[in-house]
Amino acid sequence: MKSPVRVVVTGAAGQIGYQLLFRIAAGNMLGDDQPVILHLLEIPPAMQAVQGVVMELEDCAFPLLQGIVATDDANVAFKDADYALLVGAMPRGPGMERSDLLKKNAEIFSVQGKAINNHANKDIKVLVVGNPANTNALIAQQNAPNINPAQFTAMVRLDHNRAIAQMADKLSVGTHELSNMTIWGNHSSTQYPDISQLKVNGEVVKDIDHNWYENDFIPTVQQRGAAIIKARGASSAASAASAAIDHMKSWALGTPDKDWVSMAIPSDGSYGIEPGVIFGYPVTCANGQYRIVQDIPISDFSQQRIDATNQELREERAAVEHLFS
Ligand SMILES: NC(=O)C1=CN([C@@H]2O[C@H](COP(=O)(O)OP(=O)(O)OC[C@H]3O[C@@H](n4cnc5c(N)ncnc54)[C@H](O)[C@@H]3O)[C@@H](O)[C@H]2O)C=CC1
Ligand SMILES: O=C([O-])CC(=O)C(=O)O
To answer: Is the pTM above the cut of 0.90?
Structure first.
C-alpha cells in the first residue's frame, strides 16, 4: 500500500465540492492504490454543513480514505498538502460573464496562494476551478513565490469534455473514439475549441461543415456554462467535478499514447502567448509533469481566435495585478 497523500478541496460544502469529495475518496482521481487524507476548507458559516459532509464521507467506509481534516483556516488546510483543488468561490448567475466574478473572488485566491506558499508540500499540484479560473490561478501563483509557478493550473477540461461530447454527437461515434481535441485560452466565452487535429479512431476527421463548426459548434461550447445556468438555475456542478477529477488524474497518472488533454497552464511562450499567462493548451502528461504539444499548424482562422482569448486574459491580468505579492 502506498503512503497517503493529502488532498485539499476548498468550498467543500458547495455544489461542486459535494460531487468531488466522494469521487476522490473512492480512488477515481489518483487511482485504486492511492490512499488519501482529505482536507476540507470552508468559511465559518458553512462549517456546520461541512460536518455533515464529513459524516457522509465516513458513512461510505471508503477503504482509501485514511483521514479527514475540516477547517475554516487556510493555514491548517494547506499544511503538507500534495494536491489542491481550489473550488471555493462565488458562482455566476444568469446574465453574468465569469469575469464579472473577478473582484468578488480575487481576494480568496491571494489568501490561499500565501497559505500554499507557507504550508504546502513544495511539489503541490494546484488546480483552480473557482471562476474566473485562469486569472484566479495566476493570483494564487503570484502569491506563492516559493512554489514552482508551473504547479498552478486552471480548468479548461470541462470545455474539452463538452467539445468532445458535441463532436461525438455530430459524428455519431462514441466519445472514446475521439482524440486530439484542444481548448485554447481562457475558460470563458472567448475560449477557442479547435478541431483541426481531431481524430476518430486515430484517423484525421475531414469534411466537417465549416459553417456548422464556426456558427454552431464553437458558440455552443463557449456558451455551454450559461446554457446550464439557464436550464438548472445553478451553474454546472457534477460535470465540473468530473472534469476536475479528469484534469488531476491526467496530470498525476499521465495521458494515453497518441492523445492529449487541454489544461490551462502558465505559458512558456509557446504559440506566441506571453510567458506567464495561464492559457489553455494541448498537453501530454507523464511522470506527474505536463508538456505543451508543439508544432500544431495554426491557420488564420485559429490565430484570430487565439489572439482574442489571449487579449481577454491580458485584460483580466491587468485588473488584478495589485493583488500580486
Ligand atoms: N472552471 C470551471 O470549469 C468551472 C468553475 N466553476 C466555478 O466553481 C466555483 C464553485 O462553484 P459551486 O460549487 O457551484 O459554488 P457554491 O456556491 O455551491 O459553493 C462554493 C463554496 O465555496 C465556499 N467558499 C467561499 N469562499 C471560500 C473561501 N474563502 N474558502 C473556502 N471556501 C469558500 C462557499 O461557502 C460555498 O460553500 C464558482 O466560482 C463557479 O463559477 C463552476 C463550474 C465549472
Ligand atoms: O458557466 C459558469 O459560470 C460555470 C462554469 O464555469 C461552467 O459551467 O463552465
So the answer is: yes
For residue 10 and ligand 1, the question of a CB distance below 6 A is answered with yes
Under 8 Å CB-to-CB from 96, ≥6 apart: which residues?
none
Protein residue with least CA distance to atom 5, ligand 2: 225
310 alpha carbon to ligand 1 midpoint, in Å? 25
DSSP character string of 21-46: HHHHHTTTTT-TT--EEEEEE--GGG
**Reported ipTM:** 0.99
**CA-to-CA separations, 296 to 162, 194, 243, 299, in angstroms, rounded:** 21, 11, 24, 10
- The whole-angstrom separation of Cα 273 and Cα 266 is 10
Q: Cell for 94?
A: 444568469
Q: Is the peptide bond prior to 4 cis by the omega test (within 30 degrees of 0)?
A: no
Residue positions counted in the chain: 325
pLDDT in tens, 243-291: 999 999 999 999 999 999 999 999 999 999 999 999 999 999 999 999 9
Please state whether beta strands 65-71 and 125-128 pair in parallel, antiparallel, or not at all (unpaired): unpaired
